[in-house]
Amino acid sequence: MPVEAPPTRAPTVVVQQATSVDPLPVPVNSQQVETTSPSLEDRIIHTFATSKYEGSTIGQDYVPEGTLDKLITEAAVGEKLGNLTTPPKLLGFILSSAKKIFAISVLTVFKDDNAHNCRAMETFFDQHITDDALPILQNSASGEVLLKTFGLLKAKQFFDFWQWKFIVPVFEDGLLEYKVASNVILPFRGVENGSMPREGTFGTVFEVTVHEAHRKSSAFLVEGSRTIAVKEIDARKFKSTQPGGDYRLLGSDEVVKEAWAREAAALRKLSEVKHDHLIQCIAAIEKGDKFYFLFPWAAGGSLRDFWNTTPQPNLSPEFIEQVLVQFCGLSHALNKLHTYRGRTASFRQDADLNDGTISGGGIRHGDLKPENILRFAPEDDRDVGTLKIADMGLAKHHEVSTNMRQNVTSTKHGTARYEPPEVEVRVATTRLYDVWSMGCIILELLIWLVEGTEALNAFNQSIRGDKKGEPPYYETQESDSLTGQGKKAKVHSLVTKRIRMLETSRPCAKNTALGDLLDVVKTKLLVVELPASSDSNSTSAVPDESGVVVTVADASDPTGSGGPCRASAETLHNSIVSILAKGDADKSYFYTGPSRPAVGGLTNPSQLAPHTSGGLHPSWALSAHGDRKQDSASGSSPLAPTQMRENLDINVWDYTPDNQFAAQYLSKLRELSQQSPFPKTTETDQLCSDCEKLDLTRDFHLDDKLSELRARAESCRFCKMRWEVASSLENKTVRVRFKRVGSVIKMNESDPPVFSIFRTPVADSKGPEEFIQIGLPVLPEVGSAAHFQLIKLWLRDCDKSHGAYKCTSSSPSTGETTHQIELTDTESKAGDENTDRDDLEQAFQKNLKSRRQAFRLPTRLIHIGYTDSPTVYLYETQANDTVEGFAYMALSHRWGVATPETPPFCTTAANRADHMERGIAIEALPQTFRDAVTTTRALGLQYLWIDSICIVQGAGGDFGSECKRMEDVFSAAHCVVAATCARGQWDGFLKPRPQRDYVTLGLADRSSGPPVFVCRYIDDFNGEVLKGDLNKRGWVLQERALARRTVYLAGRQTYFECGAGVRCETLTKMHNQAAGFIGDANFPELAILSTRSHGSGETSRGERILYFQELYMTYSRLDFSQWEDRAVAMEGLEQRLMWGFKSRGRFGILAGRSLLPRSLLWRRGASAGSLTRILFPAGRQRVPSWSWMAYRGGIDYLHVPFDGVEWETGDALQSPWDPADAVHTAPRQDQVVPVFRAKAREFGGGGDMTIVYDVTGMSHGPTSSVRCVVVGRAKGRPGVAPGSKRHYVLIVAPKPGGGAAIYQRVGVGFMLGKAIDFAKPGLDIKIE
After folding, report:
1. Which residues make Cβ contacts (< 8 Å) with residue 950, sequence separation at least 6?
2. Which of 63, 569, 811, 978 has a CB 3.0–4.6 Å from the CB of 334, allowing a cystine?
3. Residues 138, 155: contact at Cβ < 8 Å?
4. Reduced to 3 DSSP states, what percent helix, strand and coil does the chain have, rounded to the nearest 5?
5. Where is the composition biased (Polar residues) (predicted)?
6. Plot region of 151 (φ>0 → left; ψ -120 to 50 → alpha; else → beta)
7. Which of 59-63, 348-352, 388-392 shows the lowest per-residue confidence on average (mean pLDDT)?
């Protein structure tokens, strides 16, 4: 059996909470722990990516392709072999041919002895063992060399564990089939909270992402597909437990392998048939006794999913045209398959793939059905998207699984409902099989369009009746013709009846698009008789053993009575082309009835599963999107950034072991105290036999029946902990699953996790336990020396190690803050989407330095002095003071509710001089401010910034000028301290915290291995911080984004956030890309550049648009004590956005390229009954009506397709910042309201329209003064009339008391061009 790492024994000891402590274990190489520069081993391990997907096991960390090119350099080789002793030939050998061999050796056979290491590499050099020799097997010649040279233990670690982390496959164009060893790690990562895995008889289909460094195939570039579908065929699923415990294959592994090889060959042939409506296979992988196929993931699900999630579709000419265009593409793709003249293949189990003459040539799909038509890149849950034919080999797979099962009914070909009558006859199946199936699908489509999903399901149920399975759309009757014997097939009577009903409906009336399509189904597709030329030469009735007769007729006289015969895919395609041509000439041909908005059901097809991943979790009742619900009035999707939400889930965090830092902290604690922070292990609690056998250093999952778990909870400590987190689901499900994922345990594959796994330090750990985080089950007392020591170490580590994240201190100069950024020619090209990454990084670093040199100290700071000083003083900074010389902490806090007992503590014009000269007694400060002083002193700083003290409040104060300097205040701070758990100024944040429950699973003999702690999960940065009360304040979003790093004092523990991610007081390190956007120390760099590690340039324009829209939607839902602060509380953040996006703008509007029109197309939030206009007091800047900052309430954005709209320019819509350029200057600070100049038009006489008014109760009409301003129009297909294109508009009305041509925005919407009166000249207006 292969070994994964040095083995450990199973744990047997458990304890709840201990009162005594053990001596702290002394870590090995403690001097090395203190080293500021990480070793080469650590640098290699730090680059590990993790392969985690359905069915994967522990030890699945790997080195991404190309990583070693940057790590294994001449300097790195010299570090291990000696700079002066490494022979040039050996150095050249390593750098050119053996970087992986060298890296593996670093982790296994190397010692702290350069000469030994050099001899080891010379062995590889002398034996010509290069990276191409990997994997090296033990019984190979190279393996024998390793055994002889390094001994059994080291060689086994090389053979069975470490080498597999460096030989991960890369998927490339031109290569479809990959045969790899069972130990090979696949570069997959499961999509957390994505679609649930779909189990089949032969295996599983699940959703993954593939590491960017391993995606070289162009098939990964499918539009709208950011993830990959993995179809796994697992031979072990065909194993059955026999009496006596034997495992015996019902079929043979070779049968499964043969089935995989046959489909791989078929897919290889299919890859030659390129078409936009055919899905392409990315790879076919043979990995031991597992077999995989990789396809692009269809985020929109299948056509069936679309029908189910949209129970009442939108009936409009535009939508029906969309549907017809897609089915035109599907029929063309099907015809291309059928007429393919290469080396052809039938996808039936009994097809000979080497026979190029099967059934007259061409490829037959054999299992067309709505489930096998996938939907890519839909704009929203009502858009058709791009439909693609998929699952070419499902019928064959189904038959393979049937052969391996006992006592089951065989499915002969495809799905029964869509099978044609000829499957009953033992004759060669033709390509017209697919045509019948397409006829069934189109009939279902028409029923759904006209009557909805409920009617479609009822129709299929009526055909099913009391029969088992899915009966087909044909039936048989006694034959009274031809041979006079047997039965004759005919279209099912209920199908015929439904077609007649549809013919009487208005949408399917004669001379309409749907009516003509229905006629195609009736006369050309759902036809039993086959033409003689359709791959058969017979003209007689052919009975099978059951006596069923299917007619194969002469093409000139199909049935002998002048009846029709089934058409080809080419005929179907030509028929739909003809329908589309008629529609292009007259749009009313597509649909003439009243507009019927779509009634959406589930927005995510994966929600169709009985239990979604989030539905069986303690937080199942919480909505992921807050109050953003579907707005039936507008019919538009409330969330424009759907793609961002799918890939940037704020609930899903990555947990990366960082045991080097943990060891540093424990070493520091040893200097403070000789006691260990770890509880002393005892044997006071009991475990059940199952929990007693658990080895938490290995991957595992527990499937618990809730009733049994509740019973075991009385006698088993770990079962009790599981029952406590699962008990809320008792009436919702029968079973729950607990699965280890790295250093956490998740329940039902959901986030956040329910348990954390920690261990104590162990000497020279390079086994499986190294992937478990060293952590604290019991936290130190808040405000203690150990507590503050951890915060100091966080800051010190950030200063030393996080230069790449721009978190560290800088040396700004004094001077005025102009916020003027000089851009190079390269940087100013707003249209360049593929700018070289190095240039972009240099540009950001240059601009970052420029901005930080422009930062000034806050106008005032609090001088807190030393720990024994009872008084603090307000200090006004001077012109020659620098940020470097006045390092300070900034406090982020809630003011709280003022009462006579707890009044707000402020500096005013009256007490300002007193605060400066006589100072402020610490005992007079509110508790939150006292705690801030204590924390700042403990961290070694003497200056503190608190808004209510450092900004003079009230009459005669300087809030108006100081609030515009928040970028300086928070960006220049050494660190920000967030009083997350404090309800107000008088509450405090250094408060006692509840200890969490935990259990110790360790070894009875402590010398044999470290104890492992399973703790209740409290590393909930999302719940405690991001969703906490403090972060619901409007000002705090800006404070978090502008801060380089922040310490959060929360209710259960302390967190530290900087550009490198989030650290927890438990010693967990975590990261989330969505949270990282705001936590970015150089905000908004992460929104502009690709991922730091593996990106290759700028993010796309669409991604940046979704980013700023999401940011503004989030901000719009935050609270303010004074609503007139809504604009100024975002001003520093806006300055950063405009700097990063190379644009001008103000008040939530960005003016660059398509940023401007998309910024203007905001709408009131889907759940907001009405926005409320903010009243601005005298002396405060008024916000114009075209900005959402002028209102109270949440906003969303109209969903506008990317690259599908022509935006208005020139006199039609002119912004206050025209002429636009790429240089951002500071926004105007005067009291003049910026205005837009535009052409306002009246509404026309017809056409569909959707309008969302900002304030409810308004309307438009012939006598109304409401007008529309066109912002953009859909590009549309060539030849489409302007009146039939969707137009995106602002709704405006005369401003009361504003003058003849002064208007204000009152809403937003979209409509067809025919709904706008373009015959009259537009009115030149100003929008204030």
Report:
1. 858, 859, 860, 861, 862, 874, 907
2. 569
3. yes
4. 35, 20, 45
5. 807-823
6. left
7. 348-352
| CA distance linking residue 1017 with residue 617, whole number of Å | 14
Average pLDDT of the chain is: 75
Distance CA 1326, CA 1328 (A): 6
Q: Which amino acid is at 344?
A: T
Is-contact 297 229, C-beta < 8 A?
Answer: yes
pLDDT tens-digit map of 821-845: 333 333 333 333 334 444 544 554 5
List Cβ neighbours of 251 (8 Å cut-off, separation of 6 or more): 238, 400, 403, 404
Residue type, 787: H
Contact 1003, 1009 (CB under 8 A): yes
CA triple 549-555-556, angle to 5 deg: 120
β-pairing, 1149-1150 with 1145-1146? antiparallel
DSSP state of 172: E
Closest CA to 1165 of 650, 631, 642: 631
Query: What's the half-sphere exposure (Cβ side, CA atoms, 13 Å) at 686?
Result: 7
Long-range contact set of residues 1278-1284: C-beta below 8 Å, sequence gap at least 24: 1279/584, 1280/584, 1281/587, 1281/1313, 1282/1313, 1282/1318, 1283/1247, 1283/1312, 1283/1313, 1283/1314, 1284/317, 1284/318, 1284/587, 1284/1312, 1284/1313, 1284/1314
Show the beta-strand stretches assigned E in 194-266. Answer: 198-200, 203-210, 215-216, 228-234, 239-241, 247-249
The C-alpha atoms of residue 73 and residue 363 are separated, in whole angstroms, by 52
Sole residue written with tokens 């705690």: 931
Output the pLDDT for position 465.
77
Tokens of 1227: 């926004």
* 851 token code pair: 């901005």
At 200, phi and psi to the nearest 5?
-130, 170
* Residue reference for tokens 């150089």: 1082
**449-502 residue pLDDT tens:** 998 888 898 898 888 876 766 789 998 876 544 344 456 888 999 999 999 999
Q: Are 577 and 328 in contact (CB under 8 A)?
A: yes
Tens of pLDDT, residues 330-363: 999 999 888 876 643 333 333 332 333 233 457 8
